[in-house]
Design brief:
Distance between the termini: 27 Å
Number of strands: 13
CATH topology of the largest domain: Aspartate Aminotransferase, domain 2
Order of helices and strands: HHHEHHEHEHEHEHEEEHHHHEEHEEHEH
Radius of gyration: 22 Å
CATH architecture of the largest domain: 3-Layer(aba) Sandwich
Shape: globular
Strand content: 5-15%
Mean pLDDT: 92
Number of helices: 16
Bound molecules: pyridoxal-5'-phosphate
Number of domains: 2
Strand order of the largest sheet: 2-8-7-6-5-3-4
CATH class of the largest domain: Alpha Beta
CATH superfamily of the largest domain: Type I PLP-dependent aspartate aminotransferase-like (Major domain)
Largest sheet: 7 strands, mixed
Length: 425
């Protein structure tokens, strides 16, 4: 396994870019300076790393692998959507060409309308930019807000790609520990704000913890950000699977929401379009002007066919999506109903919602070691909590994320039976 130098270092020993430059200059007297790249400033992707644990492992036919490591649909989008994309591929010239940097007008319009209706706010097409997936939406937002040495506050446990992008951008991720309910506290965030702070990031429903942040908490973060002249980035990739009916917060109702809020969205989960890479940003027009430079330089425009699929989905799949949401909510219920079996063995359910359950195990061994043993001894692949927090944080050694979206009720039952039987000794 090829770990980078930076990955081998604990987070608190990793240096911000400017410090590294100093180090390289001073140490070059005796030894040639070692050039540290942007990618070396962060760790190996947990998804890539955990896939390596599967290499060379043969799973017995009576105990096939249960993969709860990643939250990605495994089936194709509905046929109508595939047909719309196929038709466009065959007949539309513009489906194959560069398009507008911020995306197709009809998609921007359709999404603006949907956001306005869902959140009861006023969002116009000029407030919406389409990106090549929601990860790119985050990257573009950070590029438009920060420069080297700036700080961004992120709740811990974090979504690892957010942390990786901040590391690679030379932006310090300031960890905000969540409470026992896995929800971050705006007052604790206020205490972390420094002159270099540019933004606060929330993910709701949360990856990895599954919790849906209460509307009042999201509003308090917004008010804090506005008061301090910061931006609040809210990644709502899983909003279509929120258990609450209607708007999960009231930020878009604020007439000047666009001065403080950057809302991120993904078409990946809602319409099973992960491979087509379609995400979105809702923000102020001035912000989008900056974001456009990033997108233009990186991908020039989002892929046309994916956008065409997304428009079709927005216009035709709302009932279907409501059914998908019901199914996910039923799986969440299955986790909650089945959990007492694990609770008896000392496990705790810390959070559950959208695509994820976040759990604590009862064993003395670290979750990273247990995760590898679970692959070979129980045919379960799930990610240790240590992949969602600074290295050395003791909570990570006790926790796991279960990405249950692809496992039905029967699969959840089997998963819990295997975990209940698992005893690392
Ligand atoms: C919180 C969060 N944001 C963004 C993404 C990436 O979404 P996309 O496929 O649209 O890039 C994910 C995917 O797992 C996610 O969990």
């Amino acid at each position: 396994m090829s770990h980078s130098l930076a990955q081998a270092l604990p987070a608190d020993q990793r240096l911000p870019f400017d410090d590294r430059k100093t180090l390289m200059t001073t140490s070059s007297i005796s030894a040639p300076a070692r050039h540290t790249t942007s990618t070396e400033a962060t760790f190996c992707s947990p998804i890539v790393e955990s896939r390596r644990w599967l290499e060379g492992v043969d799973f017995p036919s009576n105990r096939p692998l249960i993969n709860v490591s990643q939250a990605a649909p495994t089936e194709m989008p509905p046929e109508g959507l595939r047909q719309a994309m196929a038709e466009a591929a065959l007949t539309q010239v513009d489906a194959h060409l560069y398009g507008a940097v911020l995306g197709r007008d009809d998609l921007r319009n359709a999404l603006a309308g949907q956001i306005s209706a869902h959140y009861g706010g006023a969002v116009g097409a000029a407030n919406v930019g389409i990106t090549s997936g929601c990860n790119q939406a985050f990257a573009a937002s950070i590029a438009a807000l920060c420069s080297y040495g700036d700080e961004v506050i992120i709740p811990v446990p974090w979504y690892f790609n957010h942390k990786m992008w901040l590391d690679m951008s030379g932006v310090t991720a300031v960890p905000l520990q969540v409470g026992t309910d896995m929800v971050p506290d705006p007052k604790a965030a206020a205490a972390l704000i420094s002159p270099r702070t540019r933004a606060i990031v929330l993910v709701t429903p949360n990856n990895p913890c599954g919790v849906e942040y209460p509307a009042g908490v999201v509003r308090a973060f917004f008010d804090l950000a506005r008061e301090k002249g910061l931006t609040l980035i809210v990644d709502e990739t899983y909003r279509d699977f929120d258990s609450r009916e209607g708007a999960p917060h009231d930020l878009f109702m604020d007439p000047s929401w666009d001065e403080t809020l950057i809302h991120l969205y993904s078409f990946s989960k809602a319409y099973r379009l992960t491979g087509h890479r379609v995400g979105a940003i809702a923000a102020g027009a001035a912000r989008l002007f900056e974001i456009e430079k990033f997108l233009d330089t990186l991908t020039i425009c989002p892929a046309q066919l994916g956008q065409i699929g997304a428009i079709w989905g927005l216009q035709n799949l709302q009932d279907w999506l409501a059914g998908e949401r019901r199914e996910i909510l039923d799986r969440k219920a299955a986790i909650e109903e089945g959990f007492p079996q694990l609770a008896e063995k000392g496990w705790s359910l810390l959070g559950c919602g959208a695509y994820f359950a976040y759990v604590e195990h009862p064993f003395s061994q670290a979750s990273e070691d247990l995760a590898k043993r679970l692959v070979t001894e129980a045919s379960i692949l799930m990610l240790p909590g240590s992949m969602f927090m600074p290295s050395g944080d003791p909570a990570g050694a006790r926790q796991f994320r279960i990405a249950f979206a692809n496992v039905d009720r029967a699969g959840i039952k089997t998963l819990f039976e295997r975990l209940a039987d698992f005893n690392p000794g």
